[in-house]
Each structure stands twice: as C-alpha cells, then as structure tokens.
C-alpha cells in the first residue's frame, strides 16, 4: 500500500461506498427485484445456441480441418503452431492444421445435445488426425486445448456407446491423446523437471530452445496429464506433471508467492512480480481442481496456502493488483481480462461473497466499454495505451456461470444476457465471430479463437440450460472441457495407485463429490455438493466458523482462520 497513489485511494473509497450502497439496492448492482421468466430463459438458450452454430458452421465451412477460422475473410489459420508465439519464430513449413476448433467444439456439442454432430466429429478425428507433424507447439496451449479436448471427448464418447450405433467407437481419441502425451514427455527432461515451454511434435525439444517459461505454463498440466495416466494406466504423464508442480511450489517465496516467469534449466525466477492474471492464472485454478478431481491432500495444502497469500498480498477491496513475490509490495495496479476467472474459482471453493464483489467490478468494466479490455489501469480508471483488445475471452461468462450455479440469483442471468447482446452487436460478422482489436473503436481483427467455441459459448449456454450437468459432477479444465469426478480417481496419490500388473487401480474410495448431495447438514438444510455451496458471510472476511459454510470439495464444515479467511483445517476435525 506504500506506493499507492492518493487518487487511487480516493477511487477505491468511492468504490467501497458504492458497493455498500449496492447492498441496499441503490448502487451499480441490482436495484430492483429481478425475475427471469422460463420463456426468457429458453429464448436466451436459443440465442446462445445460434451463436455457437454461427461460429461452428462457419469454421466447418471455411476453415476445417485447419485450426482456426478467419471470420472476416472466410479463410483459415493453422494457429496451433502460432499460439503463444508472439514473434512467430520457427513456424512450420509444411503443417496443415490439426482441426483444432473441431477438437475444441466436441464437448460443447454435447452440452448443446447434438449427439450426431459429436459423433461425426469423433469419427473424422479418429480416422484423420495425426500428431506426427513437424510443428513446434506451445506445451501449455497444446495441453489444455488438444490433449484436454481429446480426453474429455473420449470420456464422454465412451460413456454412451449408443451414440455410435452405426460405427462403433474404438477408443481412438484416447490413443491419439496417449500419442500426444508421449510427444510431450521430452519437454520434461530438464535438470529441474520443469518442462520447456515449446516442443516440436515430431522431433522433440529443438536445439537452442528458449529456457524461459511461465508459472501457468509449467504449473497447470496436472488435470489433463493426470487424467491421461488414469485412463491409460501409464503413470509417466501424471508423474511428469506432478514433479514439475512440486518443483514450482518449492520455488515459492517465504510469503507463499510465486513469480511469473522462470528458467527451466536453473529453476530461477526471471520475473518476480505476479498476480492472478496472465502467466499465473491457471496455476491456482489447477491446484484446486486437481484436488477435486484426484482427492490428493497435497493439492489442497498447496492451494490453501497459495489462496491465502493471494487474498493477503494481491487483493485490494474487490480488485487484484500485482506484487513482488519477495516483498509482497504492490507492483502493477492493473485489471486484466484474464483475472475475471478468479470469482469463478472463489465460488468453487465456497468464497461466494468475495467472488460476487469482484465479479461486479469486472462486469462494471465490461459495461463501461461494451466488452472487457485486455488491460485496464486501476489508478486512472482508463484503458492501457496498447492492450486494448478483446479476443472473445470467456472468463467473465465463466465466473457468471459459477456464481449463478451457487446462488441461483437471476441477476446473473441478466449479466449473461448483457454479455450475449454485446457479443452479437460488436463481434458477430457474416463469417463468424471476430476478435475486437481496440475496444475504444470496436475495430475488429480477423480471428475467431477456438476457446470461443470451447468456453465462451459453453458457459453462456450452461447459464440458461444446465441439463448436461444433471445428476453428476464435472470439473471443467481451464479450457472448459468437462472431466467427470469419478470415485475411482478420487483417492490418495501418487504412490502405487497402479497395481503391479498395471491394469487396474489398487483402491477406490467413494468421494463425497461423486454423490450429488452432501451428507452434511447446515442450519437444518441439506447442502448440495460441488458448485452449490452457500457462503453465509456478509463480506469476504469471517469472524467465526459459523460464517464459513461448508467446504465444496469435502463437504466438511470450514473454519475461520486467524487471518480472517475461511478455510478447511483438517487437524481441527
Ligand atoms: C452480491 O452483491 C449484491 C450487491 O452488493 C448483493 O445484493 C447480493 O446479495 C450479493 N450476493 C451474494 C451471493 O453475496
Ligand atoms: C487464405 O490463407 C492462406 C494461408 O494463410 C493463404 O495462403 C491464402 O492466400 C488465403 N486466401 C485468401 C483468399 O486470403
Ligand atoms: C499440406 O497441404 C499441402 C497442399 O494441399 C500439401 O502439398 C502438403 O503435402 C500438406 N502437408 C502435409 C504434411 O500433409
Ligand atoms: C448438429 O449440428 C449440425 C452442424 O451444425 C447441424 O446441422 C444439426 O442440425 C445439429 N443438430 C441438432 C440436433 O441441433
Ligand atoms: C477423413 O478425411 C477425409 C478428407 O477430409 C474425409 O473424406 C473422410 O470422410 C474422413 N474420414 C472420416 C471417418 O470422417
Ligand atoms: C445416451 O444418449 C442418448 C441420446 O442419444 C440418451 O437418450 C441417453 O439417455 C444417453 N444415455 C446415457 C447413459 O447417458
Ligand atoms: C447413423 O445412422 C442413422 C440412421 O441409420 C443415420 O441417419 C445417420 O446419418 C448415421 N450417422 C452416421 C455418422 O453415419
Ligand atoms: C545453437 O547455439 C550455438 C551457440 O550459440 C550455435 O553455435 C549453434 O549454431 C546454434 N544452433 C542452432 C540450430 O541454431
Ligand atoms: C491385475 O491385478 C488386480 C489386483 O491384483 C486383479 O484384480 C486383476 O484381475 C489383474 N488383472 C489382470 C489382467 O491380470
């Protein structure tokens, strides 16, 4: 707080006053009782459905089997090789794409109930996709988009063989995922176990490859690689991802903070400043989600410490700034578009009041510009001079979805309606949906990102129709691909979870998440599991255990820490 500019202080005080008045129904939040009729809900569901098909059909017509659509020129781009590659170095000479946007669309097709198109896509990929291509790709991007997309689609496809009555499904997507996972493994062969950020799918790590990577780049691989190990019985994928994650965690400062970029050969930090946005975001997300999916206490302990440090050093009222991992001193006072996922993560852990508070500020900035700018300077309440784009990002819709699931407050359905209206009016063109180059002019860019199909459309659709989720629990990867929470996977790891014959699992214990209703009672009412956790606190700080509700991952009562945050302390129970 020492570096805080006085103008910013005033702004923050005004915001806090404003939020207080919101709760009395006068501020920028809801000021009236809102109702969202079932007819309106159906109408919104159809609006989102139309958005998805407009994007998907145009991709299939003009870009497939290349990676992504150029919606302004009805053309394609083989962008898997370009993701994260800002200087466009080492681009492949002879690469014709991997049908990236189709892979990303598969689980959304099922969320929309389109079994026939899902089946058609699965069959095409089964026969035509290969990773034996001379292309250098970003490990993180390829993991979350391609490996995650294939694994999720494989699990969903094998759950309902009736979709494949004419042409049986033969686990081909899993074989493809396994092949891809094996191509990832050479990236992990470093003295530290931290993976290179880049890998050539055919030739492995190239000579003189950059040794710099980001925290999210090497710390958010565990969901996809862990699931791949559980599905194949080959523990190398999970082992490599877990080793990297442990190494990264051991590099934290005494304040439990991490930096943003690091050297994979030396294990030294390059950038000591970090926040919850670009370069770090999914690291936090995967600690919690790995705990939910695999039930290993180690993930919970890491998440818990990391979460408390974020709330202590990065949070300022409803906003999050960046700080130096060594001193905890604030560095950059900026809101970035990627940070908007955080309220969704907070909702998942049961910190609903804090999530609600931040979500309202992100939505405020969204409304101020029509869409969310990539960077917004908190001190001046203005756009960043250069990072003024909006590449169809899903994070605000994602958080809105989680908050609606947790609260059923129809206000979030109105937020979704406003997001859909903005997307349709500012980004829809005849040939699909185009990214915004500059939110101050709404000038467009010729790029329809694949995550628009896998995430933005999916989370908006689930706001109005969540029948896909009925009767079960899913963890959504950071790319929006659903992985079902299975009691078989939900056990202590990693030691010897595979039997000596390598084919089956040693133990399985029923996870509280695998049943839809928790056994716990709170204030006489049965508490639903996973995303349906009430938070009884009036603001994001607690004074007593009673204010903390139930932990969404274990269904156990949470306790209020000395620092005033709700958490789960197993020793207490
Ligand atoms: C979210 O904030 C608004 C405005 O302060 C308030 O009316 C609403 O009750 C809050 N919801 C939750 C779940 O905290
Ligand atoms: C479409 O993109 C390809 C690959 O970049 C390019 O070679 C081709 O000229 C483009 N076609 C048009 C009509 O722009
Ligand atoms: C990519 O497409 C071009 C043009 O159709 C073709 O000549 C080339 O062989 C293809 N490359 C691969 C690796 O399939
Ligand atoms: C499934 O998607 C395909 C391709 O967009 C479309 O032609 C078909 O009508 C869809 N089916 C349903 C049931 O929505
Ligand atoms: C494989 O790709 C070719 C060319 O696009 C297509 O004709 C064929 O139908 C595809 N295979 C399947 C099973 O879809
Ligand atoms: C399988 O899919 C069909 C629709 O094609 C659906 O009616 C059925 O309920 C599904 N079965 C399971 C077990 O999910
Ligand atoms: C499967 O069979 C049905 C009816 O026999 C047909 O309408 C459908 O197109 C077939 N699907 C595929 C992918 O071949
Ligand atoms: C790798 O770096 C070394 C030393 O700088 C240089 O001699 C060599 O030519 C480089 N190799 C490639 C393929 O760029
Ligand atoms: C593998 O080992 C497990 C536990 O020992 C046993 O139940 C299972 O039948 C074995 N599978 C094979 C294929 O031998």
Summarize the model shown.
Its EC number is 3.2.1.-. This protein is of the alpha+beta class and 573 residues long.
Write structural notes for this entry:
The protein is an alpha+beta fold. It has two domains: 2-533, Glycosyltransferase, CATH 1.50.10; 534-573, no CATH class. 41% of the residues lie in helices and 12% in strands. It contains 16 helices and 24 strands. The structure holds 2-acetamido-2-deoxy-beta-D-glucopyranose (NAG) (9 copies). One 2-acetamido-2-deoxy-beta-D-glucopyranose is lined by residues 73, 75.
Overall 3D shape: globular
Write down the Rg. 23 Å
CATH classification, class level of the largest domain: Mainly Alpha
β-strand percent reads: 5-15%
Task: Compute the separation of the termini in Å.
Answer: 36 Å
Low-pLDDT stretches are 1-31, 492-540, 568-573
CATH topology of the largest domain: Glycosyltransferase
Structural class: alpha+beta
Total count of domains = 2
Any ligands, ions or cofactors bound here, and which?
2-acetamido-2-deoxy-beta-D-glucopyranose
Strand order of the largest sheet: 5-6-7
Mean pLDDT across all residues, rounded? 83
In CATH, the architecture of the largest domain is: Alpha/alpha barrel
- The level of helicity is 40-55%
Tally of strands: 24
Features:
single chain; 573 residues; alpha+beta; Glycosyltransferase; 2 domains; three-stranded antiparallel sheet; 16 helices; 41% helix; disordered N terminus; disordered C terminus; binds 2-acetamido-2-deoxy-beta-D-glucopyranose; glycosidase; Seven-hairpin_glycosidases; alpha-1,2-Mannosidase
């Amino acid at each position: 707080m020492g570096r805080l500019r006085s103008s910013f202080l005033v702004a923050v005080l005004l915001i806090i006053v404003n939020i207080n008045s919101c709760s009395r129904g006068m501020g920028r939040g809801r000021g009236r009782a809102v109702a969202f009729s079932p007819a309106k809900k159906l109408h919104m569901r159809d609006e989102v459905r139309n958005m998805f098909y407009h994007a998907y059909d145009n991709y299939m017509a003009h870009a497939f089997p290349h990676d992504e659509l150029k919606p302004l020129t009805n053309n394609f781009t083989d962008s898997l090789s370009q993701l994260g590659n800002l200087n466009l170095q080492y681009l492949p000479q002879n690469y014709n794409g991997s049908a990236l946007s189709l892979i990303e669309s598969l689980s959304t097709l099922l969320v929309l109930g389109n079994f026939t198109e899902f089946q058609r896509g699965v069959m095409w990929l089964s026969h035509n996709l290969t990773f034996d291509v001379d292309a250098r790709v970003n490990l993180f991007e390829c993991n979350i988009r391609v490996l995650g997309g294939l694994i999720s689609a494989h699990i969903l496809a094998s759950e309902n063989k009736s979709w494949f009555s004419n042409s049986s499904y033969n686990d081909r997507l899993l074989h493809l995922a396994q092949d891809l996972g094996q191509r990832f493994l050479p990236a992990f062969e470093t003295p530290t176990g931290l993976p290179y950020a880049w890998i050539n799918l055919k030739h492995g790590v190239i000579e003189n490859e950059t040794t710099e990577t980001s925290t999210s780049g090497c710390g958010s691989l565990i969901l996809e690689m862990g699931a791949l190990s559980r599905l194949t019985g080959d523990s190398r994928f999970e082992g490599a991802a877990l080793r990297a994650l442990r190494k990264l965690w051991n590099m934290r400062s005494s304040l439990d903070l991490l930096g943003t970029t690091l050297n994979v050969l030396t294990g030294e930090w390059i950038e000591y400043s970090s926040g919850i946005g670009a370069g770090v975001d999914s690291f936090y997300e995967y600690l919690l989600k790995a705990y939910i999916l695999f039930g290993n206490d180690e993930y919970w302990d890491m998440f818990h410490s990391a979460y408390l440090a974020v709330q202590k050093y990065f949070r300022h009222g409803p906003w999050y700034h960046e700080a130096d991992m060594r001193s905890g001193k604030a560095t950059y006072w900026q809101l970035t578009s990627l940070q908007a996922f955080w309220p969704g993560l907070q909702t998942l852990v049961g910190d609903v009041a804090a999530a609600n508070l931040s979500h309202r500020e992100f939505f405020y900035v969204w409304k101020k510009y029509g869409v969310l700018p990539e960077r917004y300077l908190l001190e001046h309440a203005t756009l960043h001079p250069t990072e003024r784009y909006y590449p169809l990002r899903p994070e605000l819709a994602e958080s809105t979805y989680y908050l609606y699931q947790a609260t059923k407050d129809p206000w979030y359905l109105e937020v979704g309606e406003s997001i859909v209206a903005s997307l349709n009016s500012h980004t829809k063109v005849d040939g699909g949906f185009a990214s915004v180059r500059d939110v101050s002019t709404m000038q467009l860019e010729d790029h329809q990102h694949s995550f628009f199909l896998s995430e933005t459309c999916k989370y908006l659709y689930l706001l109005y129709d969540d029948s896909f989720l009925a009767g079960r629990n899913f963890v959504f990867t950071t790319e929006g691909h659903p992985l079902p929470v299975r009691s078989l996977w939900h056990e202590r790891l990693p030691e010897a979870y595979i039997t000596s014959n390598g084919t089956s699992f040693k133990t399985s214990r029923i996870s509280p998440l695998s049943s839809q209703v928790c056994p716990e009672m709170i204030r006489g009412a049965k508490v639903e599991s996973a995303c349906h956790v009430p938070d009884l606190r009036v603001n994001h700080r607690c004074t007593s255990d009673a204010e903390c509700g139930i932990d969404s991952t274990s269904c156990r009562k949470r306790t209020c820490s000395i620092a005033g945050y709700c958490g789960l302390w197993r020793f207490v129970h």
